[in-house]
Amino acid sequence: MLADEVASLLDHLGVSPDRRHGTRAVRSPLTGETIAHLEDASSQGVAETVAHAEAAFRQWRSVPPPRRGELVRLLGLELRDAKDVLGRLVTIEAGKIVSEGRGEVQEMIDICDFAVGLSRQLYGLTIASERPNHRMMEQWHPLGPTGVITSFNFPVAVWSWNAALALVCGNPVIWKPSEKTPLTALAVQALFERAAVKAGNIPDGLCTVLIGGRDVGEALVNDPRVPLISATGSTAMGREVGTQLARRFARGILELGGNNASIVCPSANLDLALRAIAFAAIGTAGQRCTTLRRLFVHDSVHDEFVAKLTRVYASVRIGDPLASDEVLVGPLIDEAAFETMQCALAEARAHGARIHGGERVEEKRFPNAYYVRPALVEMPAQTGPVLRETFAPILYVMKYTDLNAAIEQHNAVAHGLSSSIFSTDMREVEKFLSVAGSDCGIVNANIGPSGAEIGGAFGGEKETGGGREAGSDAWKAYMRRATSTVNYGDDLPLAQGVRFDID
Ligand code: NAD
């Protein structure tokens, strides 16, 4: 019984039994069985949580940033201790293979380390003033309670990309996890609370979790006391959240869908490309925002490459990730994901596709879970379902002859998240990376589009939402910038030579 194992994992992680009852059934995609019940937050509960976060903000913003970093350092230590247990819970709740579940927790640890260093580097510029005896500078101040809405497919890492930065920047964090993966959120909250006890003097309400569906997310998005919402999920969700935030002039970090592509050039190292493409297209059962969904292969290597890829697709091991480390593909999240995948394949067929795989497997063993063989779909052209994101393991393969035309096709979709080129010709690589190349937020060479490191800013353009999280200077979105001009002279020269003399 998975429910028993989940109960003991939650005990181990310190999730209070008080939080583990209610009317919301949580199910595991591994078997389809119910593994826990939880209670949704009420609208009053949301309002009270935001009020606590506001009170916490007044204290936390005045704590020196390196001391805020100490809390995040302690959280990183808790995560190290809990890596295997939390990773296993990720596998049970989101269906990822075991090494990816652990990898997700490692990503949390990495961003904590990054944020600890960042806590001593929240600096602004000093800027030359045009006026004598004046100095200009930028200061970065904490912004306020930060709402974090997350998707099911990175149930814990996405929170940590936001929370680690928000906390060192001086903001409380209110988390509305996916309704499909609320248990891992409660587990992370319990680890945070342990770290907070060890740190001491941490205000109540600094980090909180609101369990619930879209209505709870909407209540958070519409609360005027929350100046920043970081929302990860579908483009449809982002369109609604973005509109609501714009109405009240709040800030948003939108991390939405992707329809990511790679180009395989004639000079590519095909063995390397094969491994990279297999991981990017099949890994996480095609349920990463950065999953490879479109592949353009030069006609001189197309047949050889597609034949190799077809063999990989036919042989990759699919099944319950807890049963064996050799399983590389776990289940889809639910029946709706399976139906959406089948619709996309039927539509592709109508557009002239030749399809390898895509069928349901393990149905007898797990009648209530949805395991599928990843689908390799040879398309005559980029039409129909190829133009949109289907959150399932479907890779559309197309032939190309001219790189410029392939890049044009590459960019001719609504999303702009991640991309890559496989080539050993530096002219081709540099073209793809240049202004005339990929229009995505992530542009790689000789690796697949998925599997980003936390050191870089993560996010994408167009209908991916434009937000950036994690490394580089993504922290600036969690703070407010004050530009200050100081006059240390006795005159009052005005900018632009304006004269305003009074008697
Ligand atoms: P989803 O849009 O169904 O749900 C995401 C979250 O938004 C959930 O917590 C949900 O309750 C909440 N939500 C939905 N509608 C809302 C509304 N109107 N107001 C407030 N909250 C609302 O997405 P999903 O199925 O959980 O995740 C898959 C999608 O997420 C894919 O499109 C994938 O590409 C995307 N994704 C993007 C990134 C990224 O960084 N760009 C990362 C992971 C996933």
UniProtKB/TrEMBL annotation:
It comes from the Bacteria. PROSITE patterns: ALDEHYDE_DEHYDR_GLU. It holds the Pfam family Aldedh. Its EC number is 1.2.1.3. InterPro entries: Ald_DH/histidinol_DH (IPR016161), Ald_DH_C (IPR016163), Ald_DH_CS_GLU (IPR029510), Ald_DH_N (IPR016162), Aldehyde_DH_dom (IPR015590), ALDH7A1-like (IPR044638). Gene3D superfamilies: Aldehyde Dehydrogenase, Chain A, domain 1 (3.40.605.10), Aldehyde Dehydrogenase, Chain A, domain 2 (3.40.309.10). Keywords: NAD, Oxidoreductase. The active site is at E255. One of its GO terms (molecular function) is aldehyde dehydrogenase (NAD+) activity. This is aldehyde dehydrogenase (NAD(+)). It comes from Nitrobacter vulgaris.
